Amino acid sequence: MKYYSFTLFAVLSLGLYSCGGDVPKGAEKPEFKMDQEAAVMDSVINLEAGDDMKFNRSAFTIPAGKEVTLTLKHTGKMDKNAMGHNVVILKAGEEVRAYGNEAQKAKEEEYTPQSLAAKVVAHTQLIGGGESTTLKFTIAEPGEYPFLCSFPGHYPIMKGTITVK
Ligand SMILES: [Cu+2]
After folding, report:
1. Is residue 8 included in any domain, yes or no?
2. 18, 61, 69, 149: which sits with the fewest CB atoms below 10 Å from its CB?
3. Residue 136 falls inside a structural domain
4. Which residues contact 121 (CB under 8 A, 6 or more apart)?
């Protein structure tokens, strides 16, 4: 099953213009800027990944300082030992490749080792086909936060960016 996210556009009725004739010639027109950024923010992140080793989305924008609920659904059939997926959100400035290279060695810790915890904002559990997992997190500082699946070999493809505004 696929989920389509709806982009909500705030519709502003600009009553002022309908009055007409009140604005003197040469005067600056009042500017009505739609808050488009607020309209496309995600407060819920729904990620899916299957046996094809891909996330269904790679970019999200979330509000700073507000709790976000991320759900990862494994739409495949394979076991988590063969095709496990997780979502690891890294701190701004950390690199997916550097983290992924180290983390994929840590099988006993399901590829989210304590030794690398300082680089991580939050992460989900590792799941296999048919499972899903939910994570709630809040990021206070605006910035670009990389995310990845840290299962061995997945990070070159299974990665993206969460923009916090
Ligand atoms: Cu994966």
Report:
1. no
2. 18
3. yes
4. 89, 90, 91, 137, 139, 145
DSSP annotation of 18 reads H
Q: What is the mean pLDDT of the chain?
A: 84
Q: How many structural domains does the chain have? A: 1
**Bridge partners (DSSP) listed for residue 62:** 164
What band does 4 get if pLDDT is binned at 50, 70 and 90? very low
Spatial distance between the Cα atoms of 72 and 152, rounded to a whole number of angstroms: 18
How close is the Cα of 142 to the center of ligand 1, in Å?
Answer: 27
CATH number at residue 78: 2.60.40.420
Q: Is residue 14 part of a domain?
A: no
User: Does the pTM of the predicted model rise above 0.90?
Assistant: no
What residues pack around ion ligand 1 (CB closer than 5 A)? 85, 149, 151, 154, 158
Structural domain contains residue 159: yes
Q: What does the pLDDT look like over 26-80, one tens digit per residue?
A: 445 445 444 554 556 888 999 999 999 999 999 999 999 999 999 999 999 999 9
Q: In Å, how far from its chain's centre is CA 50? A: 17
**Phi, psi dihedral angles at 144 (to 5 degrees):** -110, 120
Cα(40) to centroid(ligand 1), Å = 27
Cα–Cα distance for residue pair 42/11, rounded to 1 Å: 19
